[in-house]
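seq/struct pair 1
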Amino acid sequence: MAFRFRPAARLLPAAAGLLLAVAPMAPALAQGIPFNEIRALNLARNAAVLSNGGLTVYTPANCMFSTSAASNPCLVRSDADGFVYRFLGGPPGWEAKGLPATTETEIQIAPDGRRVVAILYNGPPRSR
């Protein structure tokens, strides 16, 4: 079996993809935010997107793209039972356009950030 040389240029797309996936976490990691908190936020956001029809029809609130978990206004509770996030969402660009939210989601994520425990609410925005 002959060894085949693979030029570094062929590895560039994979390396770039890895950097794009990890780069947004760098500020959070530099602040000492544990991986499970970052993972929980990402899982909650992605679960809401899937539950509401995908990114072509739904975008969660901007707070769900911020990885500073302790100061994140979408984080309702963080304890031994996991993480609970409550946030609004709507059609793509709803916040930037100043449109009202069409959906409110409340979701509980396991303490390790790897599993959706429950979608506690996913419907029209509730009055507060």
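seq/struct pair 2
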Amino acid sequence: MSIRFTAKARRRMAALSVVAGLALGVAGCGGGDGEDKKPQTSASASGSGGSDQRAQEGQSEEPLIELKGPDSLLLQITSAVRDSGGFVTVSGTLKNDGGDTVNVPAQLSGNETEIIRNGRSLGGATLVDSQGKKRYYVLRDTDGRPLTTTNFPAMKSGESLPVFMQFPAPPADTTEVTFQLPMFATAPIKISE
């Protein structure tokens, strides 16, 4: 009987140690920079993308380009900014320019199973560097979610939503790329620093 009691106690202690270790690991990954008052949101968790303040800046700027898409959708790109981390964030507004309510087409997510699994997004967008002969796809997080605006609601007539897409940055000497999104026209855009 004492052997059974000892074995149960050891299992409980091992389980308690594992739980405590996991709790410490999660707490250790929590940041620790003293700004625990504000909850962190991931880029894909929020519909308008909350990961990069620059993605929301410039929404009132004059668009760099306007691309017409299906069902009277209009994509206005207001900025394409290269950051020091090796990324390019393309920001803008998706607008329903028609008279009827429109659902954002699933084709804008692209055709990759991993991205489609995470709901409607702009995951099918690419940047083409014709100088370097490379195509850059929307980045994904460690769970396979695209680093772009996701989960679009039905858009009423005249309604617009801020959008963003994050790509790997082309080489520093590449300042112009071609932006492509399924079902939309393509256009060159300039990358700013």
